[in-house]
Amino acid sequence: MSSKLLRQNKIKEILQKFHVDSQEELVGLLRQEGIEITQATLSRDFSDLGVIRVRAEEGSRYVISHTETGSQVYRLIRYEILAVGSNENCLVVRTLAGRAQGVGHFIDRLNKTEILGTIAGDDTILVIPASVRFIPDLVRFFNSLMDEGEETSKP
């Protein structure tokens, strides 16, 4: 796993466990984990991960946004989805080998009300819609993800 991915995973872990109200505090927590990081790199990681600052009862804090899943992750997902199919009850998303759990996690983090949940294997994700009437919209959504990935890869 790359050092960037390890660092970003540690940032996500820290933000889920602790109330972090400043970038300096996060830099200190990362340092305690043996990760040295500059303010500029942390800002880029925040952008990639979709980290935002929100107001909470105990004061402002940094969180991973539920609506912004991170531009880097979003771009990668486009290339990892290979095909989408459906029947009268659910959708199946085919991914690159070994990527279904990551893509399934991405889908879950979208917090789309149209999706009840996902189950991921190695290269296949079962997407259970909240209602069968959402299936056509979800198929279009996943196809648009793949189409955008193809468009950005063209010269």
Quick description:
With 155 residues, this protein is α+β, with helices and mostly antiparallel strands. It is built from 6 helices and 6 strands; from the N terminus they run αααββαββαββα.
The CATH level-2 architecture of the largest domain is identified as 2-Layer Sandwich
Rg on CA atoms, Å: 17 Å
Beta-strand residue percentage:
15-25%
Question: What value does the average pLDDT take?
Answer: 85
Helix content: 40-55%
CATH class type of the largest domain = Alpha Beta
Question: pLDDT below 50 for ≥5 consecutive residues: which ranges?
Answer: 149-155
Q: Give me the count of strands.
A: 6
The name CATH uses for the topology of the largest domain is Gyrase A, domain 2
**Euclidean distance between termini CA atoms:** 29 Å
Q: List the domain count as a whole number.
A: 2
